[in-house]
């Protein structure tokens, strides 16, 4: 299982966006509405990588347009990062879900699916050439930094160069916090991570 054979020879965000729609590198394409590539400027110095498209992303064909995306927008604004100047994408390009009545409940992609989809992410990084890639959540962090990486322990550290990779929580984990106080606390920590990233970017 690999997306490699589906990648275009000439790689631009346009050619990748067209080619990803035909990807059958794993079985997730069978139930998703469409593939969802990243979005943003090719000049972005900062790239955010989440786990996978959600229900609204799958329907609209754009990343981070649902509740987690709105929370990310708010956090970026609080951290003083221009949303228009970053590139946002996901480790997996098709929505994996379990049907529950009329609703589609998010299901975590497995290691094989993340691995199969990785060539798309590598191609996006190669085209955009960001200075920093910020993984949001365990799936994205482990896709970029290996299975031993723990966001809880290693968030806020920077690994490597060209690009530097760092990790923070996924905005959806803040939405799942048990109460308002916990949400506020987690949001503050998330914004602090983003401010740290902005500071590193400026240095």
What does this protein structure show overall?
By secondary structure, this protein is an alpha/beta fold. It contains eight helices and eight strands. The strands form two sheets. It has a six-stranded mixed beta sheet, sandwiched between helices. It has a two-stranded antiparallel ribbon with strand order 4-5. The longest helix has 23 residues. The radius of gyration is 16 Å and the shape is globular. The N and C termini lie far apart (40 Å). 39% of the residues are buried. The mean pLDDT is 96.
Uncertain parts:
none
Oligomer: single chain
Share of helical residues? 40-55%
Task: Strand order, main sheet: write it out.
Answer: 1-3-2-6-8-7
What is the 3D form? globular
SSE ordering: HEEHHEEEHEHHEEHH
> Main beta sheet: strand number and arrangement?
6 strands, mixed
* Protein structure class: alpha/beta
What's the layout of helices and strands?
Blueprint: H1 13-20, E1 39-40, E2 46-50, H2 55-60, H3 67-79, E3 86-90, E4 97-100, E5 103-106, H4 111-128, E6 132-136, H5 138-145, H6 151-154, E7 158-159, E8 164-168, H7 171-175, H8 180-202
Parallel strand pairs: 2-3, 2-6, 6-8
Antiparallel strand pairs: 1-3, 4-5, 7-8
Helix pairs in contact: 3-8
Task: Describe this protein with a few key phrases.
203 residues, Uracil-DNA Glycosylase, subunit E, six-stranded mixed β-sheet, 8 helices, 16% strand
At a glance:
42% of the residues lie in helices and 16% in strands.
């Amino acid at each position: 299982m690999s997306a490699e054979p589906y990648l275009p020879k000439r790689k631009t965000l346009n050619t990748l966006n067209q080619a990803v729609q035909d990807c059958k590198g794993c079985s997730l394409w069978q139930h998703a509405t469409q593939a969802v590539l990243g979005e943003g400027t090719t000049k972005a110095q900062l790239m955010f990588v989440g786990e996978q498209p959600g229900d609204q992303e799958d329907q609209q064909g754009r990343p981070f347009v649902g509740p987690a995306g709105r929370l990310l927008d708010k956090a970026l604004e609080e951290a003083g990062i221009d949303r228009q100047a970053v590139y946002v994408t996901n480790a997996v390009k098709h929505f994996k879900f379990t049907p529950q009545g009329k609703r589609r409940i998010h299901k975590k992609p497995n290691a094989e699916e993340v691995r199969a989809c990785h060539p798309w992410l590598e191609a996006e990084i190669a085209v955009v050439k960001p200075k920093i890639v910020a993984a949001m959540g365990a799936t994205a962090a482990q896709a970029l930094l290996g299975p031993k990486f723990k966001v809880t322990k290693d968030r806020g550290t920077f690994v490597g160069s060209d690009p530097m990779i760092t990790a923070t929580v996924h905005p959806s984990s803040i939405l799942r916090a048990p109460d308002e106080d916990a949400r506020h606390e987690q949001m503050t920590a998330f914004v602090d991570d983003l401010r740290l990233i902005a500071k590193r970017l400026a240095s």
